[in-house]
Write a structure and sequence with these properties.
single chain; Substrate Binding Domain Of Dnak, Chain:A, Domain 2; Rossmann fold; 6-stranded parallel β-sheet; 20 helices; 10% strand; globular; binds FE-S-O hybrid cluster; binds iron/sulfur cluster
Length: 542
């Protein structure tokens, strides 16, 4: 195996024996094959579109789910991945029949390869990351592929709410196919990387529209972090449609529902407030789940990443749905638009003890675009009066490396006239610290999940308009972003597309950036790593 797609990759260079995330070599290899056949399918769908033919939503969904399946900590299930490869080859074979022999002759090998299950392992070993020899081409192909994985994840959530964007899907598949094209130069791939950022904005806008149309605009909300006496179900991940189905099915059963990690922002949506059994948020970011899932006592539903390989003490209480999976954990699913049957989880919950309390109090969030726009006058006045000197975007991911304590320390060391804008599970490094407020505006404004970084971009663009500036970089906003997995890659590419410069990215720069590709990002966009809290405060705040 060779995998270097996430921030925790072994030795900051690549996992080769087994994943730091817990991914076994045979699963890592099979994920490479799933990416390969999905790229092959995408070359076929791109050829069909070029030929004026339509590609069905089902196929677009298959491409997105396949990519999502290979995101860090999403799916560890060899047989589920193998099944997706089989399905993808089957669909691709059917579509190939719609293309002329001339067009087929120009397709890449991935589009034409077919094999049975007994051939998957051997083939997988030949199609991994290292099969691209030139390190800059490899770096750009992987940077693009990881961005597309993030885009696919956001599309998949929108698809669950019956929202599709054919333009986004067509780009995603064309760009996947382009990563197989040996005729593309480094410059071509750099241009494709930036184009991916443009579609990253479109993908996040699609999901934002889907979420807010279904559940209303997030509003300032205090979320309870203690527990009640009823048995509970803990729901983690990002899929709000899954939460809606779970809340509907648990109504009146005596079972409470708690959010975990990236599901916390669901509390900010008006729609979910009508459920009396929507009890609060339990725990912290994904990487603490071993202790927190054990003390929760009830069943856990993982709707997406990030899964930590479960301990035996709660493995039989952990369920998966959607793109994620773990061997030995029951997977519950349905077709798009159909209801998932969570009755088994609810029945299990009834027999479990109530959660053990691990903390008490509340946390405040809900500062997505409409809520911040509603406060625009107060915010603008605070900037004009000098009460707020700077906004610091600290969106992104949390993770288990000790070096990430930097982000808690950085948040605490910021001058009192700065406001943190956050989104994603990165927030858990500082959302329980008492950082106070500035004239009633909390110093940590949480917009929501990682995809809600879109809100932060809209807020920046709104401030640019209000202050009549030509360049978003002239705003008093600085960026100190933490990353872990591939959704952060599409968020980063989206920010670059919007013209944001001088983003600091940590705790380490991606291992998949070759020195030359890293230089392109440094020279054109001023991307930098992090150093010490003291020095970075000086650099960013002055
Ligand atoms: Fe956090 Fe994991 Fe949100 Fe990532 S819970 S690192 O999936 O996308 O953020
Ligand atoms: Fe290693 Fe990250 Fe890949 Fe897991 S996802 S195998 S930790 S690089």
């Amino acid at each position: 195996m060779f995998c270097y797609q996430c921030q925790e990759t072994a030795g900051c260079s690549g996992c080769t024996m087994s994943g730091v995330c817990g991914k076994k070599p045979e699963v890592a290899n099979l994920q490479d094959l799933l990416v390969y056949v999905t790229k092959g399918l995408s070359a076929v769908t791109t050829a069909l579109r070029n030929d004026g033919k339509e590609v069905s939503e089902n196929i677009n969904h298959l491409v997105s789910v396949n990519l999502f399946t290979t995101i860090t900590n999403a799916n560890f299930d060899y047989y589920a991945i193998s099944e997706k490869i089989r399905e993808t080859i089957f669909v691709k074979e059917q579509l190939l029949g719609e293309l002329s022999e001339d067009v087929k002759a120009n397709l890449p090998e991935a589009a034409l390869w077919t094999g049975t299950e007994d051939e998957f392992d051997a083939k997988a070993k030949t199609v991994g990351i290292l099969s691209t020899e030139n390190e800059d081409i490899r770096s750009l192909r992987e940077l693009i592929t990881y961005g597309l994985k993030g885009l696919a994840a956001y599309s998949k959530h929108a698809n669950a709410l019956i929202r599709d964007n054919e333009e986004v899907d067509a780009f995603l598949q064309k760009a996947l196919a382009d990563t197989l094209d040996d005729s593309l130069s480094v410059d071509d791939l750099v241009a494709l990387t930036l184009e991916a950022g443009k579609y990253g904005v479109a993908g996040m806008a699609l999901l934002d529209e889907a979420n807010t149309a279904a559940y209303g605009n997030p509003e300032i909300t205090q979320v309870n972090i203690g527990v009640r006496n009823n048995p509970g179900i803990l729901i983690s991940g990002h899929d709000l449609k899954d939460l809606e189905m779970l809340l509907e099915q648990t109504k009146g059963t005596g079972v409470d529902v708690y959010t975990h990690s990236e599901m916390l922002p669901a509390h900010y949506y008006p729609f979910f407030k009508k459920y009396d059994n929507f009890a609060g948020n339990y725990g912290n970011a994904w990487w603490k789940q071993k202790e927190e899932f054990a003390s929760f006592n009830g069943p856990i539903l993982m709707t997406t990443n990030c899964i930590v390989p479960p301990a035996d003490s709660y493995k039989d209480r952990m369920f998966t749905t959607g793109a994620c999976g773990y061997p030995g954990c029951k997977h519950i699913d349905s077709e798009y638009g159909q209801t998932k049957d969570f009755s088994e989880i609810i029945e299990m919950a009834k027999k479990c003890d109530a959660p053990t309390e691990i903390e008490t109090g509340t946390i405040t969030g809900g500062f997505a675009h409409e809520q911040v726009f509603a406060l625009a006058d107060t915010v603008v006045d605070a900037v004009k009066s000098g009460a707020i000197k700077k906004f610091v975007v600290m969106a992104g991911c949390d993770g288990r490396s000790k070096s990430r304590s930097y982000y808690s320390e950085f948040a605490q060391a910021l001058p009192k006239d700065t406001v943190i804008l956050t989104a994603g599970c990165a927030k858990y490094k500082y959302n329980k610290l008492d950082l106070g407020d500035i004239g009633g505006i909390p110093r940590v404004l949480d917009a929501g999940q990682c995809n809600d970084s879109y809100s932060l971009a809209l807020i920046a663009l709104k401030l640019k308009e209000v202050f009549e500036l030509d360049d978003v970089n002239d705003l008093p906003i600085v960026y100190n972003i933490s990353w872990y997995e591939q959704k952060a890659v599409i968020v980063l590419l989206a920010l670059l597309y919007l013209g944001v410069k001088n983003i600091h990215l940590g705790p380490t720069l991606p291992a998949f950036l070759s020195p030359n590709v890293a230089n392109v990002l440094v020279e054109n966009f001023g991307i930098a790593g992090i150093t010490t809290v003291e020095d970075d405060i000086k650099t960013l705040i002055g």
